[in-house]
Amino acid sequence: MIGRKNVIPFVVIAVAIGVGGNTVHDVYAETTTSSDIIGSGIFIDSVNVSQMTKEEAESEIEKYIGELGNIPIQLVTIDDNSVSVKASDFGLSWANREVLDEAAELGKTGNVLERYKAIKDLEFGNKVFDIQLDFDDGAIRQIIADQCTEFDQEAVDATLVKNGSEFSVQSGQKGIKVSVDESVTKVKDYLTGFWNKSETLIDLVVMTDEPRGNEEELKQIKDVLGTFSTTYKSSTKARVENVANGARLINGMVLYPGDTFSAYEVVSPFTEENGYYMAGSYLNGKVVDSLGGGICQVSTTLYNAVLLAELEIVERSPHSMIVNYVEPSSDAAIAGTYKDFKFKNDSEYPIYIEGTATDSRQLTFTIYGVETRDSNRKVKFESNVLEETEMVDLITPDLGLPAGTMQIQSGHKGMVAELWKIVEEDGKEVSRERVNKSNYQMSPRTAIVGMATGDLNVAAAIQTAVATGSIDYCKTVVGGLQAAAEQAAAAQAAAAGMLPIDPGITEVEAPID
User: Fold this and answer.
1) Per-residue pLDDT at 138
2) Which of 183, 316, 446, 475 has its CA 20 to 30 A from that of 457?
3) How many angstroms separate the most distant Cα atoms in the chain?
4) How far, in Å, CA of 487 to CA of 473, rounded?
5) What is the distance in angstroms between the CA of the first residue and the CA of the last residue of the chain?
């Protein structure tokens, strides 16, 4: 019995060796002397790697992957709009590089019979190894988010229109938009599982964008949560226009719960096309003319209305110098993108912002919503000045201006101040909380004094006045000189039948931002 078992393997080997006329020695020789060369009839995808070294085969496959990367792929978005990209734009890569080792080892590993069978199989048909491709999720996402969402049709939220004391509701409108997350998954699954490596179309996933708000919800908005007014009666015509323009741009905005309002985003850009004029504003502690000068009074007035409505302040910055239309620390500046006024509707209901600028030059913002605070609860705010830096005079003599001429521009004290929120219930204070602490630079009062005169006595008097460093003293001296000059000029003019010319003293209030 034992002997019969020992005979069977020998018979099988003998039969196997007889097939095709090859011997075990033949197979062994073929698979050892050519171990660095890939066998005949072997393909990796459509690349024939027969009789190549692994390095040569790898180079050919990389070239093939590069060619695949140039194949156009159309991403179909909304309304049959499409974005054309190349496969390489999606971060195309060769995922199963180990397939090269498998191809190189075919017929060269295993026992003699396994190697023999692999070689004989290649005589009757090619062996094709599949290439597995991979794509980068981040690259796919960026293309879809940056290029394909341009065709999104945003939903239009329901909103309010205020006519006099009445509100009317305007219904919203549905939108349609690309679902970026779902589209990334669909694109990658298709390219890695179904792509036939030719130009193709892929329909992105789109979804309905539902508008926010409805008539029932918006009809609840009727309570005044906070209102605040400032005046700008001394402003120039250009500044008046800027204030009115800012109020117009903000007026009528509806913020839903969770929305954040940015004053800069709403009132910019500061261009003539957007309704702005050149007017005085603060920049790095100086007064300069800029498009939109005065817009900070808009953001400041709104800031105080928001404080009274007790909504969440997200961002607020003081001016570089004190302003004169609100108490210290009650201002909110806008300056480029580095100073903005932002607040969040952290209430449970939508809010409506009303902004008005009247012919009497009064600016008012009112926040409407649903009042949820107790009627016996009152909120007020107090400004507390901690430090003051006295304003100084800065005098500049000018030989190009006639003696007796002064151009004066007012300045401001420097200041450190705090704003406090005080809550009262039934007329009694129940809490006191510091809202902010603000630092304001001192702005000197400046004067340009004319020095051009042929009268040595007049020149000496003005030089002495300038040397004191006091604008008020200069005004007294120049005023006296003017009075004397006026008398003399009047006498000469009377004799000649002419009116005298008075250079005069001009005083300009420093522009308020």
Assistant:
1) 97
2) 446
3) 158
4) 22
5) 112
